[in-house]
Amino acid sequence: MKRLIECVPNFSEGRDMSVIQKITDAAMTVEGVKLLDVDPGAATNRTVVTFAGEPEAVIEAAVIAGRMAAELIDMSKHSGEHPRFGCMDVCPLVPISGVTMEECAEYARALAKRLGEEVGLTIYCYEAAALTEERRNLAVVRSGEYEGLKEKLSKPEWAPDFGPAAFNARSGATAVSARDFLVAYNVNLNTTSTRRANAIAFDVREKGRKKREGCQLTGPIVKDENGADVWVPGALECVKGIGWFIEEYGVAQISMNLTNVSITPTHVAFDTCAEKAAARGIRVTGSEIVGLIPLQAMLDAGRYFLRKQKRSTGISDSALIHIAVKSMGLDELAPFDPDKKIIEYVLRGEQGGKLVDNTLEGFTQETASESVAPGGGSVAAAVGAFGAALGTMVANLSSHKRGWDDRWEEFGEWAEKGKACHEELTRLVDADTDAFNEIMAAFGLPQSNEDEKAARAAAIEAATVKAIEVPYRTMEVSLLSMEVIVAMAEIGLPASASDAGVAALCARTAVLGAYLNVLINAKELTDGELARGFVEGGAALRNEAVARETKILEILAGKL
Q1: pTM across the whole model
Q2: What is the pLDDT of residues 31-73, one digit of tens each?
Q3: Could you confirm whether 405 is annotated as catalytic?
Q4: In CATH, what number does 4-178 get?
């Protein structure tokens, strides 16, 4: 999975959009970073900017944005409704795909360090990036706001985590964090009553509602021993929510912020709203995503609803997304376009140039051209992907066989394994060509002096290792897919026996073909021990693939 993070810096300027334009223009000079949203507010005098990409590129863009903000925004002249204490007031990083929260926190600390040392901003780390437990809460870190910052910095306990401890009247301070992706999610109701929508929102949101004596609508509010209101928690953690009426659509909605979709996913929020609404005689008719949603959240939703139907979940991402959209009614109020609503798809929209995005005919023609890439490594990965996909197909078909209804989960698990294999092999098609291009780039480095010669030699060696690792991984994953193929030959749908056989032939071809790429590149390594490790390990994978192919064909011989 591609490593992607999102950055959501909040700048203390929401009235002069030329300032924000200069900040975003500068940040977007970093290759691989895409601007997703700019949301200014005049009353708050604050703009929320959202951009995303691979971690290193995003950090670079954030540093540039922070530098520009420090040059263009004067906090001594700032006023607005929103709490703030700096020109780049907060700068959270959000893991999107291929990055854990722990890793994202480390990226946030690296960003904080650079903003402090290179830009000269006073930096505090909060939430998952906090260096001390006392600084996890943003409200605590930002207490006193800009007006109280000078006095705050004079106290030893409020020394910044990075950057100068001296008060800078122009730039103030910046809070950097790592946090979960926030999904703005609205659930539609077959009522026009805001009060009833609010009641359901109170049922589901984490904060819940105030406890009352007797009637929960009109009874007196219960107080604790300190005189504070007592609250009855709602059903869902990490959910904020209210009810409102949308005149444009003529329906009431439960409007929620899902602050951690790994704890409360969209599909759980949807089903819980449906349950609580039904208890009040109200029906959920659909829902909508406001802004963007991570791909994983949509795939998890698709799998969830398929499991409720006792159907295999090892289907394509597009099919999983379709099930999620229809199950949650995400297209009730407006069309749900995955390319515009799923953050990973938005980011890939302008990449282009990938082999796997080509048509089959286009890929074949490109392979047949005079260009040296794509070559055997990419073709081996593609053949392996076809084999793994065929094995997955047999698993999915077997899960639907009449009379095998109680085995849907068994075949679904095999389909999931097969899908993981063919998806990784598909990525390896382009990875092989990328590795070859890195070798060519390394050979093109200057070598006019001894230092340059040494750097060129090291780059060639590193690129050669990568050019071995990619086909080696093709071997490993293709061999792994044969576990699925063996199982489908043994227990899968009898009518698909020939498909399992073709899958085995493809997988074996991928392993043997990728091994040839390992061999031809291993002989170029200067590290003989490393080269021998690749060659010997590859030989073991090759032999195992041949053995599994033989086993599969023997199983199928009695069925065909």
Answers
A1: 0.78
A2: 999 999 888 888 888 998 999 999 999 999 999 999 999 999 9
A3: no
A4: 3.30.990.10
